[in-house]
Amino acid sequence: xxxxxVHLLSAxxxxxxxxxxxxxxxxxxxxxxxxxxxxxxxxETSAAGDFVKxxxxxxxxxxxxxxxxxxxxxxKLVVGSGxxxxxxxYADAFDLGARNNKANQMPLRRxxxxxxxxxxxxxxxxxxxxxxxxxxxxxxxxxxxFPYPNVSPSPVPQISKAGQGLLMPAEEIELGMKNVLxxxxxxxxxxxxxAKEDVAKTQxxxxxxxxxxxxxxxxxxMAKALYDQAQLYSELKMNNPDRxxxxxxxxxxxxxxxxxxxxxxxxxxxxxxxxxRAKKG
Length: 281
Description:
The chain is mainly α. It has 12 helices and 2 strands, in the order H-H-H-H-H-H-E-H-H-H-E-H-H-H.
């Protein structure tokens, strides 16, 4: 009679193990402050559409050499170039709005100036990381190991409103900026894989997990992005010819490092013309 309860307890214990096998096998969360922790954080903020935070997490990974460095560089450059482009696009809209609303242009010009300050920070960080990247990674094929930015490609209505010169409340301006940045990072991702603005094609590529992209395709994208960022420093915007030359020179070196195509030839011509203008300034 005394044996049965022991057997019963054993059976219950076995049942508990069977019912909850995952308790002992659950993977441990990455230790706070490690590259794995920041990679997971970047993945989570990207899924939430907060690419400013994603960029910050990737910067922390890139402070030291680690197992995430190579893929973090690529992701950082895609996100950074997208952020710079988004800030610039929104600033240009407010600039246009100031010209369309001459009676009340100061708030619009101030908003454009603030956005260009943010674009400047994102662009400077991007060119800095690109210089390190291009000298360090020469493999003919690059691995895009980050998740597809699952955000809306639709035009952002606040861009149109700003361009018309409408005075929006601060909350709407902020919402517009968040959506402009999301869309800009999505378009940067499309460009970086060689799909231009083809969202469907880009999404299909990312469905298989890691995306392999020829290095020449990515370098061409970055040369174009740096050329676009150089326009931030033109006479009618931030008026900084020295900084403009830095971006155009890096774009020129990048485009010269890859085989010539019709597109790269046209871009090289634009860069050369930009450098001439910058030197005159």
